[in-house]
Amino acid sequence: MSEQEQGQERGFEMVEQVSNTALATITKSELQTAIEIAKTYPRSISRFQREVRDLATMNEDVAEECLYALPRTDREGKTVNIEGPSIRMAEIVMSAWGNCRVLTRVLDTEGDVVVAQGIFMDLERVTVVSKEVSRRITNKFGKRYSTDMITVTSNAAASIAARNAILAGIPKAIWNSAYEDAKKVAVGTLETLEHRRSGAMQFLAGKGVSEARVFAALEVTGLDDIGLEKLATLRGLVSSVKTGESSLSQAFPVAGKDAPAEEPAQQKSVAGVKAAAMKAKAEKAE
Fold this sequence. Notes:
This protein is of the alpha+beta class. The chain contains twelve helices and five strands. It has two domains: about 40 residues; about 230 residues, no CATH class.
C-alpha cells in the first residue's frame, strides 16, 4: 500500500472516530476534503516556529496573555502556583500550525461539576487528541450556581479543554521556545522590573486586591521581593483572572479560613447587570 493510500485509510479512520463523538457539525465528506487539501498544502515547521514567536512576542500585553498561573494544593497541603501557556497561547499555536481544527462541547452539567470536552484534529498528520475538563458549579456551601453562571463556567471549561487538546496535539518541542520568549517579553528586564511590577499591582489594587494578598500568593514578604521570576508568576495570575480561568479570590485568596468567599469575577458581572436593571426599573416606577 502506498503512503498516499495509507494516509487516506487513516483519514477515514479519523472520520469514523470523530463521527463517533456525535459532533455532527462536520460531515465525513467535508472532513475528508479538508484532509486532502492539507496533504496538498503541507505546513512548514520553520515557518510555524517563526510565526508563533512573532505573534506571541508582538508586544508586552500579548505576551502576558500567553501566560497563566493557577494556585493548586499539593499532596502536602501546601498551595503552589502551576504555570504554563494560556488559552491565548494555544490560539496562536493553532493558527500558525494550520491544517487543523478544534471542536468543543459540554458533556455534562448535572451534579456538582460541569464537564467539557475539547477535540483537536490534525488534518495533515491525520491524528485526533481529546481532552476533558471539569469545573465545579457549586459554592463553598454546596449551593449550585445560577443558570447564567453555569453557562459562563461551561464556556470557560470548554475553552480550557480546547487549549489542553491543542497543546497536546501539537508537539511541545516546537512551540515551547516561543512560549519562553513570550515570558521574557511579559516580564521584561531588571531595567523595566519596577515599572511592570507596579503596573500589575495597580491593576489588582483597582480590583480590590490588597498588597498582603498578593504577597501571600507569591510567598514573599514585600514588594522588593518580587523579582523577575516572581513577576512572571504574578503576571500569569493576572492573565488567568483576565481570561476567566481563575477568579480574584482563587488567584489571590483572602487570608484566614473564615474570610468571606468572593464570587467568581464572571458571576459578579452577571449579578451586577441584574442589580442595575432592577434598580433602573424601580427608579422608573417611582
